[in-house]
Specification:
Layout: H1 11-15, H2 22-27, H3 34-47, H4 52-59, H5 64-93
C-alpha cells in the first residue's frame, strides 16, 4: 500500500488527515481503503488455494465460519472454472459419432 506525503502548509489541515484530496490524483496514486486492501488480500489468498484456516489467521477472523462465509463466492467461481476446464477437456477427447 502506498501512502502519499501531504503537502499542506496549513497546520489545521495537516492535523486532520484527509486522504481523498487531489494530491493523490496529481501524484498518480490510487486511494485504497484499508478494508478494501484486507478484503483483496483474502480474495487473492483464497483464489490461490490457500487453506481457509490460514486465511482466517492472516485476516484475524475469530472463527473459520466468518472466513468461509465471506469468501465462498471465490471458491464457487473457482469450482465453476474447474468444471468448465473439465468440460472442454472431455469434449476434445470424445470420439466423433457417425
Amino acid at each position: 500500500m502506498t501512502v502519499a506525503r501531504r503537502t499542506d502548509t496549513d497546520p489545521a489541515r495537516r492535523a486532520t488527515p484527509n486522504w481523498n484530496t487531489s494530491d493523490e490524483a496529481v501524484a498518480g496514486l490510487c486511494v485504497i481503503r484499508l478494508y478494501d486492501a484486507r478484503h483483496g488480500t483474502g480474495t487473492l489468498l483464497t483464489t490461490a488455494g490457500v487453506a481457509p484456516r490460514i486465511v482466517m489467521k492472516i485476516l484475524g477472523h475469530s472463527q473459520i465460519s466468518i472466513t468461509i462465509d465471506v469468501y465462498t463466492h471465490v471458491v464457487q467461481d473457482t469450482q465453476r472454472e474447474a468444471m468448465s476446464h473439465m468440460d472442454r477437456l472431455l469434449r476434445k477427447r470424445r470420439p466423433e459419432r457417425e
